[in-house]
Design a protein that fits this description.
There is one protein chain. This protein is α+β, with helices and mostly antiparallel strands. About 45% of the residues lie in helices and about 15% in strands. It has 22 helices and 19 strands. Strands 3-4-2-1-5-6 form a six-stranded mixed β-sheet, sandwiched between helices. The chain has a six-stranded mixed β-sheet with strand order 11-10-7-8-9-12, sandwiched between helices. Strands 13-14-16-15 form a four-stranded antiparallel β-sheet. A hairpin with an 8-residue loop joins strand 5 and strand 6. It starts with 19 loop residues before the first helix and ends with a strand.
Length: about 650
């Protein structure tokens, strides 16, 4: 296909001389110079020019050429099939590459297709289940430097697009490393002039530079008020936090830009303060091996030991708890009490764990409903999960614990959602809309009629053939179909002169003649268009179904959060039961008094573990630990730290007794 076209004014048009398709590619690429542009062309996503060379290097896909540029040189081209897009996206994002996805718009039967930027996929804006680690959130963090007197203050804002969680905080430059380790972002947004200052220290994080004006208090306040439809930020404690507001504004702008629209499922911001959590610096987090080993391999970690969760939501909640031990002792004690209640009813605990097992990832499904990207089988999984939530509530009803009951009260979802999904969706819908039937025929009369036309063509042809043979007396007459010629009547050449006058010749072959009739042509038009029309109507009905489900997104997000908490409590109770852990006592006086302390991960890995004691109090604030190399000094210190941490996430602990 030629890529050039004539132009009378090449001096005033930077893309003169290119075909409309290549011209549009260049226009969109110019607007997104730092992203790899995947441009939909039929069943492939193609990329051209330097992007094709880039894709070839990153993905190892074949580099070809399509036409020539204005200088007569071949235009490099590389592409990936539409069906395997997700696996290539995963590889690109893992390498820290932002990918702009351009989709076709319109009907290919009605002339040239338009193309528009659909979204930009970056490491911090992933929502597709296939691209995200199941047991870990991908957070997008914005860091805003202070512009006033407090030059050392930094504003933080982060969002997890896959579940809508939105948080803000303030910190200092010296504490930024600890905060980044705690939040664990996949991508960090910073002003361009601040990026170089962080580049060397944060090599393992994708740093994205934005223009400085994105990070201003006025812009942030405007974005927050617009996003949540409020007149003031006081309710969230942000009215006197200009740095956090600045970061939030940059964050929301970036999300709108990458998603090519406002994102409605983001929850109201929660402003965190340092007094909410026990501080743990980044070195301590690494050395305690909470969620990853010091070597970064697949070795044992505290998270891996405790993760008896039945749902991926629960696993992510457990990971969050481990990195956020609480200072609020009332919440900690409530968790301890809930675990004790679960251990007092072992049969109910087992039933709860079994009831949680079939629950899909409600957090991410709710997000995909809000973003209109949920697939039919995922929507069916959401439908099937709704009765399961009621079953969980019934299973846990015997615990009689206020903390557990508080979780159960939020599992109720309006039965109208299940009724609608149950009525509209097939029991086992096709994986994708284009792959087959998704909406039940009984849901829409027009859809049922179109599918009857589509599916009963064989019966009609058999009946029509028998009728025509009887009417004409031609025993060799056959009614057939192929993709090129559609429906036709075929008779042998020797009998062709005996066909009725209303038969219209369609094709002559060596040994046969092919005909059609007004009746057959009319049916052909209906049958062949029925497939296309039924698919179009199904898509319309599916989109209406998503619009209906969208009003329940917030309710689903709340239910998902409480299912996750129940799952973590059950997991911690199961491990306490298995490993003989005890409930720690919380004291208001300073000190640590632990007898029979054990390292939770080490004791699980060896056959015999020798417990140790630790007593610290006013007048005895320091212990000097001596001994030979490999004598267990580090294990002892870590065991005490982990017991304290486990206490303040609300878990039982590996000890004979513990007063903290």
């Amino acid at each position: 296909m030629a890529t050039k076209k004539a132009s009378n004014d090449s001096t005033s048009d930077a893309y003169a001389g290119y075909t409309p398709a290549i011209r549009r590619f260049l226009e969109i690429k110019a607007q997104n110079p730092n992203a790899l542009l995947l441009y939909r062309m039929g069943d492939f996503y193609e990329t051209f020019f330097e992007d094709a060379v880039w894709a070839n290097r990153l993905l190892g896909i074949t580099l070809t050429a399509r036409g020539t540029d204005v200088n007569g040189d071949p235009i490099p081209m590389a592409g990936v099939p539409e069906k395997t897009l997700d696996q290539y996206l995963a590889r690109l994002v893992k390498q820290g590459v932002s990918v702009a996805i351009c989709e076709q718009v319109g009907d290919p039967n009605k002339g040239p297709l338009e193309r528009h930027l659909a979204r930009i996929v970056t490491p911090g804006t992933l929502t597709e289940s296939e691209l995200l680690p199941q047991k870990q959130n991908a957070a997008l963090l914005a860091v805003a430097p202070a512009t006033g007197r407090h030059q050392e203050r930094l504003g933080l804002a982060w969002v997890v697009l896959s579940n809508g969680e939105f948080r803000t905080a303030t910190t200092s430059l010296t504490e930024l490393a600890s905060e980044i380790t705690r939040i664990g972002p996949s991508e960090v947004l910073v002003p361009e002039d601040f990026k170089a200052r962080l580049q060397e220290e944060y090599l393992n994080v994708t740093l994205t530079g934005l223009p400085a004006w994105h990070f201003s208090p006025d812009h942030g306040e405007s974005m927050l008020k617009h996003q949540f439809g409020v007149q003031t930020l006081a309710a969230w404690g942000l009215d006197d936090q200009p740095e956090a507001v600045s970061a939030a504004g940059a964050l929301l702008s970036y999300v709108e830009t990458t998603q090519c629209e406002a994102v409605s499922h983001i929850l109201a911001p929660v402003h965190e303060v340092q007094t909410d959590f026990i501080g743990i610096d980044s070195a301590s987090r690494r050395n305690l091996e909470l969620t990853e080993t010091l070597r970064g391999d697949d070795g044992p970690t505290l998270f891996g030991l405790l993760d008896h969760c039945q749902t991926t939501m629960g696993s992510r909640k457990l990971r969050h708890w481990l990195h956020h031990p609480l200072r609020k002792t009332s919440e900690v004690s409530a968790r301890h009490g809930a675990i004790a209640s679960l251990l007092n009813e072992p049969s109910l605990l087992e039933n709860l764990a079994q009831a949680l097992k079939p629950v899909p990832d409600l957090e991410r499904l709710a997000t995909r409903v809000a973003m209109k990207t949920i697939r039919p089988k995922e929507l069916a999984a959401l439908r099937d999960a709704l009765p399961q939530l009621a079953k969980i509530a019934q299973t846990a009803i015997g615990f009689n614990d206020p903390y557990i009951n508080a979780q159960l009260e939020n599992l109720v979802v309006d039965p109208a959602l299940f009724a609608k999904l149950h009525e509209a969706l097939l029991e086992d819908p096709a994986a994708l809309l284009r792959d087959g039937d998704v909406i039940a025929s009984s849901y829409n009369a027009e859809l049922a009629e179109l599918r009857a036309l589509r599916d009963n063509a064989g019966d009609f042809l058999v009946e029509f053939e028998a009728r025509e043979r009887a009417a004409t007396g031609l025993s060799t007459l056959r009614v057939q179909y192929n993709r090129v010629h559609g429906f036709f009547i075929e008779v042998s050449r020797g009998l062709a002169d005996q066909v009725p006058m209303h038969y219209h010749r369609r094709q002559t072959l060596k040994n046969a003649e092919r005909f059609t009739t007004p009746e057959l042509k009319e049916y052909e038009d209906k049958a062949l268009s029925a497939q296309e029309r039924s698919q179009s109507l199904q898509k319309e009905l599916y989109n209406e179904l998503l619009d209906f489900a969208d009003q329940y997104v917030t309710t689903l997000q709340v239910a998902a959060q409480h299912v996750a908490v129940l799952d973590v409590l059950a997991a911690l109770a199961l491990h306490a039961q298995k490993a003989n852990w005890i409930r720690p006592q919380l004291e208001s006086a300073p000190g640590i008094e632990i007898y029979g302390a054990r390292h939770p991960v080490v004791e699980d890995a060896i056959e015999h573990y020798t417990p140790n004691d630790c007593v610290l109090m006013p007048g005895r604030r320091l212990l000097v630990i001596t001994g030979p190399n490999m004598g267990g000094k580090s294990t002892y210190m870590r065991s005490i730290a982990l017991i304290v941490l486990l206490t303040f996430i609300g878990s039982f602990v590996p000890a004979t007794s513990a007063r903290i």
